[in-house]
Amino acid sequence: MKAPYLLDCYKKEFDAQVTKVKEGVFITLDQTYFYPIGGGQPYDTGIITSNGKAYKVIFVKKEEGEIIHEISDLGIKEGDHIHGTIDWDRRYILMRYHTAAHILSEVISKATGALITGNQLETDKARIDFSLENYDKEKILEYIAQANQIIKEAHPIHWSLLQRKEAESILGEKMTSLAKGFSEDIQEVRIVDIEGFGKEACGGTHLKNTSEVGEILFVKAENKGKNNRRIVITLEKTVV
Q: The domain containing residue 119 runs over which residues?
């Protein structure tokens, strides 16, 4: 598996070998724990060290089934062994936001049947768009309160990789609360199971327990066109 972060989101450092180099600064590894941009989650940053020199990882993307790391300088060659170190503070806050977004989305979906029409995580806030007919701030505050209760209950979170047909037999054909569904190109599905609360297909990084999220704080809600409502949240800065 070229993307072992799908089963171990807490790995901060790893060793790998360079399998491809393009234009001197775009490198592919035989395995990586750096998260590529996608699914509304930003890419990981960090450091790759090889032959005694450190290179900043400034962008990570998935292209034609491969994860490509853009580094800050020339010097790494195909076949080189590297040591990767992820910017953990950045990764961990994005994990907190991704799990928070899942919990809030599940609460809203169960209450209203609404699907997610768009989302974007950042290191200081997250926005989620829903196919909600009516804008009701008081209801939204109730949903956030319910999500915070789930967080406080400290539900364990588990991840597993399944073949698509098996995943569909567990979750149904849609497998997700995304309005656009899950890409047909993905045949190995990663399931995120918030124990006792909800399961969903997702390729992002997540926490081991809901208690790590901290408190979800309401920022604002907006109308974004017909049957489309945007909710913006932030998280308390620290988690005890």
A: 91-235
